[in-house]
Structures are given as structure tokens and as C-alpha cells.
Amino acid sequence: MLKLEDYVISIPDFPEPGIIFRDLTGVLDDADAFHEAIDRMCDVTSDLDYDLVVGAESRGFIMGSPIAYRNRKPFVLVRKKGKLPRETISEKYELEYGTAEIEIHKDAIKPGQKVLLVDDLLATGGTLDAAVKLVEQAGGIVAGIVVLIELAGLEGRKKIGDYRVDACIVYPGK
Questions:
Q1: Which CATH class is domain 49-171?
Q2: Among 7, 12, 24, 147, which residue's CB has the most CB atoms within a 10 Å radius?
Q3: Which residue out of 22, 36, 40, 59 is catalytically annotated?
């Protein structure tokens, strides 16, 4: 089994001094590491009962699509506002320097469907919290959340609330 942490590139002082940016492209551009990452994300959620996979733009697409494919589940996109062509529902959330808004197609999740929510990284929890709200606004039920990397020092789990969150790599700091 590969040590995935060896493939995550840590970049000090980006985007500002004191921050260590955890770049997952080292995982993505190594076929074995990428395969291992998807396998681990599938393994940690193998006990979950879910009907579809929802991935948050954009790296949630990269991680979520192969999980959906492997488990023969539909895949639903959570996109930045204005990127989806049909009728949507949306959710605003706070960023460090302002706000953002994400959307899903209004008919993408049927009431009562159980959802596995996927993203690459859990940091402050803003994007995933907004995605949870979108799923629930659509009538879905969040069965679980899985990320490749969690920055535990930013306490994103607190923002998301009382949902099961699985992370394959956990960094204690920011």
C-alpha cells in the first residue's frame, strides 16, 4: 500500500505567509497513487448505503466520478453559480474574503435519495457545508462525506455539523 502523504506536495507560505498549501496534484499525476486514493475513498465508505455520488467543483469531480463509476452510482455535479444549463437551486457560503455560491440542477436529486458527498479537501468546511445544504434543499439525505485530505486544524467538521466525514489523509495543522 502506498503512503499517499508522500505524493501530496506541501508548499509553504502559499497563498500567504504561515499557510502550508497541500497540493494533491502529486497524487493525480501518478497513476498508482491516484488509483490508491480512489480505492481508499471507496474502502472507507464501503459500509455506507447511498444512491448517488455528489461531487463539489472542481476536484470533487475528479475524486467523485471514479467512485461513482466503480460503485455503479449516478454522479451529480455541484458547480459554481451560472455554470449549469437547466433550472438550479443554489446556496451561498462565506469565504475568507467574501462570499461564493454553488448550485445543482433542481431535478438532480430525488426526495429521499441517499447521497455520498465527495470533495478533495476539507479545510474550513464552507464548501461542503453549502453542498450539504443543497442536497437537503433538494430533498436528499446525506449518507456520508468523504475527502482525500483533511486539514484538521481548521476545524471544518464543526462547520459541517453532525455528519459522518471520512478522510484518507489528515494533517493536524492549518
A1: alpha beta
A2: 147
A3: 59
Sequence-distant (6+) residues with CB within 8 A of 54 are 60, 64, 75, 76, 77, 78, 104, 109, 115, 116, 117, 118, 131, 135, 140
**116-148 pLDDT per residue, tens:** 999 999 999 999 999 999 999 999 999 999 999
Name residue 76's beta-bridge partners.
54
Give how far the C-alpha of residue 82 lies from the chain's centroid of Cα atoms, to the nearest Å: 20
- Identify whether 59 is a catalytic site residue: yes
Catalytic residue among 16, 72, 86, 96: 96
Look up cell 440542477; give the residue. 105
pLDDT at position 95? 75
pTM over 0.90: yes
pLDDT at 174: 66
